[in-house]
Specification:
With about 120 residues, this protein is an all-alpha fold. Helices cover about 75% and strands about 0% of the residues.
Length: about 120
């Protein structure tokens, strides 16, 4: 397998993972992009290249970055659990996000108190 195919396979796997994480069907994604469902299947299997504009629209739909979908994102500074909390909080109302932030600040202060 050549490098180009490896990249295409990586992108395909990441697209599928992002789609499933967000709970979209291939049909829903296809409608969003104005493509046949088979095109989404081919992208996810690494059998079809993904254009830059398609990748940007998919990143927006999946609420992630193009770099994440291509595997070019630099090493994450935060653990996976932090990213999961951030993704979950993004779907909350502004009031609920503030509550999550206050709770996180409480936990941080409790940790600081335990260390002193």
């Amino acid at each position: 397998m050549n490098d180009e195919q490896t990249v295409t396979d990586t992108i395909g796997a990441r697209l599928k993972e992002a789609r499933e994480y967000r709970g979209y069907s291939q049909e829903e994604v296809a409608q969003h992009l104005g493509l046949p469902r088979s095109a989404i299947s081919l992208m996810e299997s690494g059998s079809r290249r993904v254009g830059a504009l398609e990748l940007r629209r998919l990143a927006n739909l999946y609420q992630t970055t193009m770099e994440n979908l291509t595997g070019l994102e630099q090493e994450n500074q935060e653990p996976e659990s932090v990213r999961l909390v951030a993704r979950a909080a993004a779907d909350l109302s502004a009031t609920d996000r503030q509550e999550v932030l206050r709770f996180a600040q409480f936990l941080q202060s409790r940790k600081s108190d335990e260390q002193t």
